[in-house]
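sorry to bug you again but im stuck and you know this stuff better than me. what follows is a protein written twice so to speak, once as letters and once as structure tokens for the fold. id like you to explain what the token line says about the fold, in plain words if possible. anything you notice is useful, everything is just below.
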Amino acid sequence: MASRSPTVALLVVLAGLASPASAFNITRLLGEFSDFSTFNSLLSQAKLADEINRRQTITVLAVDNGAASGISSLPSDVQRKVLSMHVVLDYYDKAKLEAIKNHTTLLTTMFQSSGQATDRMGFLNFTKRSDGTMVFGSAEPGAPKNSQIVKSVASRPYNISVLQVSSPIVPPGVGGSPDTGAPPPHKAATAPAPAKGKKEAPAPAPSDDDGGADAPADADAPGPAADGPAADGPAADGPGADGPAADGPAADAPAHNKGSDDAADAPEGSAAGRVVTVAVLGIVALLMTIII
């Protein structure tokens, strides 16, 4: 039995060394650096620390307390997505990044493995600039690459590497991203201006000719009516017998009732003929006035 005890103890130690969970603890590792206390707390609150500890090979891009406010100010669901963008599913220290060919590459993050990322949102774009500056940014088209590597915080080769970056990496479209401009507000559709009513054409002013045509017939009626009875109407004969019958010239009245032609043939010097004619016309006019 005594010989078995050392063997069991050795197996326990070997099992512990081989266990991925005992490879590292990101919370304890970051706990040694007060500058990253906020970032460390955010990882625990989002329950990402346990997921990181279950990995065998990982790289964490940490931000200090001053820059961590860019993550803590986001909604809790967005915080988890952004924090998982800072966890690369492979081991990268500064030496390995500097050795990358073409000085640029895409890195897969924990956000990509969550299944919540769309398109290239879950990938990081790493670029080494001509001046030697190494920067990270979202692989989304048009996203800025402005999160620079500041220093190496801690590393356990081929297991975990913690690198400090200058600013949080927030992919456009993940929610609350300062790098993505908000869409312009929907311009409210303006109601069309009411159509102007068709302007009615002014009624034409009556012309002089129209006025003459529309004048009441009563104005001119007495004229023609007087001409008719003056020549042939019996009304002239009736009053003529009753009116100036006592005068001698009245007996000659029938001679003047033959028409305008007989009146024209009367002698110019006959005063009696003119008197009779005037009297007859006066009587006819008087009768017409009474009749109308």
